[in-house]
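Quick board copy: two proteins, each given as sequence then C-alpha cells.
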Amino acid sequence: MIKIRKATKKDVETLYNLIIEIAKYHNQEEFIITDTNKMLNAGFGDYPRFGALLAEYDNKVVGYLSYTWNYSIWGGSEYMNLDDLFVLKDYRSHKVGFYLMEKAKEICIEKNINLICWEVESDNQKAIDFYNRIGATMKEKGLFKWNF
C-alpha cells in the first residue's frame, strides 16, 4: 500500500538520503552542497523555504517530491515549482511517482493554484514519458544558470 505524506522535521535525514540517491542516479553527487542542518532550518523553521512529500510503500519511505512556491508576473499568480521527484529503483512502476504528483496537485488545488512547473533532463526519456502520461506538456526553453 502506498501512502503519501508531508515530510516533517523528523524526516530530514531520510529526505537528505533520498537527495543523495537522486544525485547518484544522475551522476551529480558533487553538486550536493546542503546538509541536514541547512535542510532543517530552511524547510521546517518558522518560514519554510521548501516543502517535501514522502512516499511510503508498506511503511518504508521509497520516494519523495520536493517543491517551492514561485510567482508568475505574467500569469499574475503563484505556482508550485517542483524541485525533485524521485522513486527508489525497486519501487518504480508501482505508481509511487503518480501518487506523489497527485498529492502535489491536491496541495495546489487547496491553495487555489492551478500550475506546477518543473525541469527535466532532455535525455531522461522515462521521466518525459511519465510526465506525458499524467497529462503534462513539455515546453522547449533554455535554462541558464549564473553562479558567482
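And the next:
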Amino acid sequence: MQNSSREVIINHNSEKLFNIVLDLENYPDFIPWCSSMTVHSRSNSEIFADMYVKYKFMIAYKFASHVIFDSKKLEIQTNYIEGPLKDLKTKWLFQSLDKNITLIKFSVNFEFKSFINQKIAETFYPLIENKMIESFRLRANTILN
C-alpha cells in the first residue's frame, strides 16, 4: 500500500478552502484527469459519488467513493467503494492559522488490484499529488481572489 502525507500553507480562508474540496461537481473543471463526476447523494455530513478518471490514451476508470465530512472540524475523509483499486483512503484537515492563511494536512493511502498498476502509480504518485494540490490552489486563487 502506498502512503503519503503532506502539509501545505495556502493564503485563503480555511472554511472557503474546505468548501472548494467538497465541491465535487466542479472537479472536472479544474482537476486535469477528472473527466466527469456523478454525485449520487449528499447530506450534511456525507456524499456518495463516482469520479471518472481518464489519462492520456487510456480508458476512463470509475472510482466510487463515500465522502464523510465535518464542517465544524473542517475535516474530510474519503473511503473507497468500487473501481480499479483494492483500497483508497484520503483525509483532509484545514487548520486556520490566520483569517486568510490555512494549513492543510492531506494524507492518502491507496493500493491497486494490479501489481503493475500499483508500481506505475507509486512511481508517478509524487507528480500526481503535486498536480492535484496545485489544481486546488489554482482553483482557490481563481474563485477567491
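Board note added afterward: Residues 2-144 form a domain with the Alpha-D-Glucose-1,6-Bisphosphate; Chain A, domain 4 fold (CATH 3.30.530.20).
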